[in-house]
């Protein structure tokens, strides 16, 4: 009778799937091969105010810095695609309502993925090698995770800078367990966009300055989440260019044919959309108090923008709203919001809204 043996790699991958990871692969724990490109990108200022991306650069770009004797990276991906009222690839067409990026509609992925990667490490210690050591990488930097995921066979780089899996699309969270176990690496993923450039053409701010190159300072995701100050006036209209993108932006993923064809809704309970991220009128969001914000966005990625960032974005989007209550809501925020950043954006939006009304009503 033929004997089948399960390799350590197969055992690890099977358990990772049991933990709810959709994709899993293995890469060698070598320093990033894109170090120079990453440094150039930072030097050109494309990271904007995201100074944290330049901190601990060695650690970000070399797994050995995180774990001495690191040998392998177990790289995982978790689908976060949430199909609400919209179909795959299409944004919700709900005038005067907010659109939150899909990744932010449920619970914070850092907590979910980190916890499960440590569970995977526990499993490895129990079943494979009691002396195995490991450290978890979640959000080590935009490049590193995508690079190791590509080397581990999970997907390839699209022109929108996202990691694309040819049969699953790009709506994935990525994470990695760095370990000192010597594991057989997978083959790097192969694939390409061909002549497609839909993402570049669809980006409302021109943030994709060339294939595979993002100037984060123009990206709505950066402007609505990472930027802590005023949104540059010339970029404010873009938040409403395709729905009201008040926290992140999925446009360059929505238009991607790989997502339109292959995205399937996640079954992970933690990533199911909350009522507030799925169904909120802008005028109601503009009235959120600090305690309400904390309660509604507990354990949510939206906390990152804080109340002042979120309401700044909401006020900005209301400049282009035709909600009959927009003007009153903006006036109230411009006069009474406790935060000066929100007041300034509300005043600008009120002014813009009134000018639009005057123009459209003039003969
Ligand atoms: S997330 Fe939006 S703004 Fe940023 S590059 Fe993609 S389409 Fe452009
Ligand atoms: S939209 Fe087209 S060019 Fe952009 S990432 Fe997808 S396949 Fe590539």
UniProtKB/TrEMBL annotation:
<feature type="binding site">
    <location>
        <position position="163"/>
    </location>
    <ligand>
        <name>cob(II)alamin</name>
    </ligand>
</feature>
<keyword id="KW-0411">Iron-sulfur</keyword>
<dbReference type="InterPro" id="IPR004453">
    <property type="entry name" value="QueG"/>
</dbReference>
<feature type="binding site">
    <location>
        <position position="60"/>
    </location>
    <ligand>
        <name>cob(II)alamin</name>
    </ligand>
</feature>
<keyword id="KW-0671">Queuosine biosynthesis</keyword>
<feature type="binding site">
    <location>
        <position position="221"/>
    </location>
    <ligand>
        <name>cob(II)alamin</name>
    </ligand>
</feature>
<comment type="similarity">
    <text>Belongs to the QueG family.</text>
</comment>
<dbReference type="Pfam" id="PF13646">
    <property type="entry name" value="HEAT_2"/>
</dbReference>
<dbReference type="Pfam" id="PF13484">
    <property type="entry name" value="Fer4_16"/>
</dbReference>
<dbReference type="Pfam" id="PF08331">
    <property type="entry name" value="QueG_DUF1730"/>
</dbReference>
<feature type="binding site">
    <location>
        <position position="256"/>
    </location>
    <ligand>
        <name>[4Fe-4S] cluster 1</name>
    </ligand>
</feature>
<keyword id="KW-0963">Cytoplasm</keyword>
<dbReference type="InterPro" id="IPR011989">
    <property type="entry name" value="ARM-like"/>
</dbReference>
<feature type="binding site">
    <location>
        <begin position="249"/>
        <end position="250"/>
    </location>
    <ligand>
        <name>cob(II)alamin</name>
    </ligand>
</feature>
<dbReference type="GO" id="GO:0031419">
    <property type="term" value="F:cobalamin binding"/>
</dbReference>
<protein>
    <recommendedName>
        <fullName>Epoxyqueuosine reductase</fullName>
        <ecNumber>1.17.99.6</ecNumber>
    </recommendedName>
</protein>
<feature type="domain" description="4Fe-4S ferredoxin-type">
    <location>
        <begin position="183"/>
        <end position="213"/>
    </location>
</feature>
<feature type="binding site">
    <location>
        <position position="193"/>
    </location>
    <ligand>
        <name>[4Fe-4S] cluster 1</name>
    </ligand>
</feature>
<feature type="binding site">
    <location>
        <position position="228"/>
    </location>
    <ligand>
        <name>tRNA</name>
    </ligand>
</feature>
<feature type="binding site">
    <location>
        <position position="203"/>
    </location>
    <ligand>
        <name>[4Fe-4S] cluster 2</name>
    </ligand>
</feature>
<feature type="active site" description="Proton donor">
    <location>
        <position position="139"/>
    </location>
</feature>
<dbReference type="GO" id="GO:0008616">
    <property type="term" value="P:tRNA queuosine(34) biosynthetic process"/>
</dbReference>
<feature type="binding site">
    <location>
        <position position="252"/>
    </location>
    <ligand>
        <name>[4Fe-4S] cluster 2</name>
    </ligand>
</feature>
<keyword id="KW-0846">Cobalamin</keyword>
<feature type="binding site">
    <location>
        <position position="196"/>
    </location>
    <ligand>
        <name>[4Fe-4S] cluster 1</name>
    </ligand>
</feature>
<dbReference type="GO" id="GO:0051539">
    <property type="term" value="F:4 iron, 4 sulfur cluster binding"/>
</dbReference>
<comment type="pathway">
    <text>tRNA modification; tRNA-queuosine biosynthesis.</text>
</comment>
<feature type="binding site">
    <location>
        <position position="219"/>
    </location>
    <ligand>
        <name>[4Fe-4S] cluster 2</name>
    </ligand>
</feature>
<feature type="binding site">
    <location>
        <position position="199"/>
    </location>
    <ligand>
        <name>[4Fe-4S] cluster 1</name>
    </ligand>
</feature>
<dbReference type="InterPro" id="IPR013542">
    <property type="entry name" value="QueG_DUF1730"/>
</dbReference>
<keyword id="KW-0004">4Fe-4S</keyword>
<feature type="binding site">
    <location>
        <position position="174"/>
    </location>
    <ligand>
        <name>cob(II)alamin</name>
    </ligand>
</feature>
<keyword id="KW-0170">Cobalt</keyword>
<dbReference type="GO" id="GO:0005737">
    <property type="term" value="C:cytoplasm"/>
</dbReference>
<dbReference type="InterPro" id="IPR017896">
    <property type="entry name" value="4Fe4S_Fe-S-bd"/>
</dbReference>
<dbReference type="GO" id="GO:0046872">
    <property type="term" value="F:metal ion binding"/>
</dbReference>
<keyword id="KW-0479">Metal-binding</keyword>
<feature type="binding site">
    <location>
        <position position="249"/>
    </location>
    <ligand>
        <name>[4Fe-4S] cluster 2</name>
    </ligand>
</feature>
<feature type="binding site">
    <location>
        <position position="160"/>
    </location>
    <ligand>
        <name>cob(II)alamin</name>
    </ligand>
</feature>
<keyword id="KW-0408">Iron</keyword>
<dbReference type="InterPro" id="IPR017900">
    <property type="entry name" value="4Fe4S_Fe_S_CS"/>
</dbReference>
<comment type="subunit">
    <text>Monomer.</text>
</comment>
């Amino acid at each position: 009778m033929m004997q089948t043996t399960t390799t350590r790699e197969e055992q690890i991958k099977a358990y990772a799937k049991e933990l709810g990871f959709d994709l899993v692969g293995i890469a060698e724990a070598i320093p990033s091969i894109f170090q120079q490109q990453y440094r150039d990108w930072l030097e050109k200022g494309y990271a904007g105010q995201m100074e944290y991306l330049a901190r601990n650069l060695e650690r970000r770009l070399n797994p050995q810095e995180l774990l001495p004797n690191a040998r392998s990276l177990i790289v995982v991906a978790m689908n976060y695609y949430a199909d609400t009222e919209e179909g795959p690839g299409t944004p919700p067409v709900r005038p005067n309502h907010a659109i939150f990026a899909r990744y932010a509609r449920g619970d914070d992925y850092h907590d979910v993925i980190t916890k499960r990667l440590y569970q995977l490490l526990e499993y490895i210690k129990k079943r494979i090698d009691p002396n195995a050591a490991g450290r978890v990488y979640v959000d080590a930097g935009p490049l590193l995770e995508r690079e190791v995921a590509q080397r581990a066979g999970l997907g390839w780089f699209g022109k929108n800078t996202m990691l694309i899996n040819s049969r699953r699309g790009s709506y994935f969270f990525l994470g990695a367990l760095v370990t000192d176990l010597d594991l057989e690496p997978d083959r790097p993923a192969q694939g390409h966009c061909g002549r497609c450039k839909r993402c570049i053409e669809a980006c409302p701010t021109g943030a994709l300055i060339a294939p595979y190159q993002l100037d984060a300072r123009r990206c709505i995701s950066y402007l609505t989440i990472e930027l802590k100050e005023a949104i540059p006036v010339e970029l404010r209209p873009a938040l409403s260019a395709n729905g009201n993108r008040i926290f992140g932006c999925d446009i360059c993923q929505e238009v991607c044919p790989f997502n339109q064809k292959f995205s399937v809704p996640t079954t992970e309970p933690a990533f199911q959309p909350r009522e507030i991220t799925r169904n909120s009128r802008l005028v109601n969001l503009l009235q959120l108090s600090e305690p309400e914000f904390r309660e509604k966005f507990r354990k949510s990625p939206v906390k990152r923008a804080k109340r002042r960032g979120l309401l700044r974005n909401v006020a900005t989007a209301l400049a282009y709203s035709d909600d009959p209550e927009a003007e009153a809501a903006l006036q109230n925020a411009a006069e009474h919001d406790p935060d000066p950043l929100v007041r300034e954006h509300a005043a600008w939006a009120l002014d813009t809204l009134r000018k639009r009304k005057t123009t459209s009503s003039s003969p």
